[in-house]
Amino acid sequence: MKVLANDGISKSGILALEKGGFEVITTKVAQEQVANFVNENNVSVVLVRSATKVRKDIIDACPGLKIIGRGGVGMDNIDVDYAKSKGIHVINTPASSSESVAELVFAHLFSGVRFLHDSNRNMPLEGDTNFEGLKKAYANGVELRGKTLGVVGIGRIGQATAKMALGLGMKVIAADSFIPQVDIKVVFFDGQAITTTIVSQSLESVFKEADFITLHVPAQDGYIINEAALAIMKDGVGIVNCARGGVIDEVALVKALESGKVLFAGLDVFENEPTPEMAILMNHKISLTPHIGAATGEAQDRIGTELASQIINLLS
């Protein structure tokens, strides 16, 4: 059987699938040509990340499709319920990228509190002529240790982020409508570990208490952080979103950054992907990455081998 990995798959995933008797196609097929390609090449499995969408039109047009797989967590680019109603298996890899995304959250947090994103823009331009001026401009850094991190969504990635925060000496609070409490176990290099329990509290209380806020939620119908939410946050709050675009009102965020209400933001995802608004891209208070939360070699290896394992178990 043939597998189309339209958004790519790790070498380890390819080898595992080939060992299981599958032919893996890594040709990048344009969105509008996916259905034709699947049918013409008798593809049984389509694997995607966040770029390719597998909607009702493709599902209806491809009666031979047996599995749709998402390399990662969120499946908002797949019509999951409709696919299942047609007898198609829908799989994903919810645990494989948690650590990588959590580390990116902290990359943005460290960047924000020490102005690295802006310093890295300005040092090449002014470092030789305005060194002392830049030194003064970036002199008011903030430590993360001892501060309160508000985690909105304490699922796998939220928990991985909480572990890193606890290891750094931060206080962690969380809001989650589906997880009332969770035990977080922080394991150290020598096998020792500590465990602490985080009890979910209201979203409003997290917004009011947190020094920094990180979002780990699926795509929503509306904004989680809007003008009203920003108004009740602490002055000088830092906000990071490595989850999904569209959960923050970007217009309200820019306004809050300009007023000083928000100290900085770290964004890996955007309302308008792949063409984020210029007001976001040019704002010197925003640390920016192009949706790369799971883009580490380790995460992609885990994603590839986990997808391969699920496919082999389902179709062998």
UniProtKB/TrEMBL annotation:
Residues 107-293 form the D-isomer specific 2-hydroxyacid dehydrogenase NAD-binding domain. The keyword NAD applies. The keyword Transport does not apply. GO terms for molecular function: NAD binding; oxidoreductase activity, acting on the CH-OH group of donors, NAD or NADP as acceptor. Keywords: NAD, Oxidoreductase. Residues 8-315 form the D-isomer specific 2-hydroxyacid dehydrogenase catalytic domain. InterPro entries: D-2-hydroxyacid_DH, D-isomer_2_OHA_DH_cat_dom, D-isomer_DH_NAD-bd, NAD(P)-bd_dom_sf. Belongs to the D-isomer specific 2-hydroxyacid dehydrogenase family. This is 3-phosphoglycerate dehydrogenase. It comes from Flavobacterium fryxellicola.
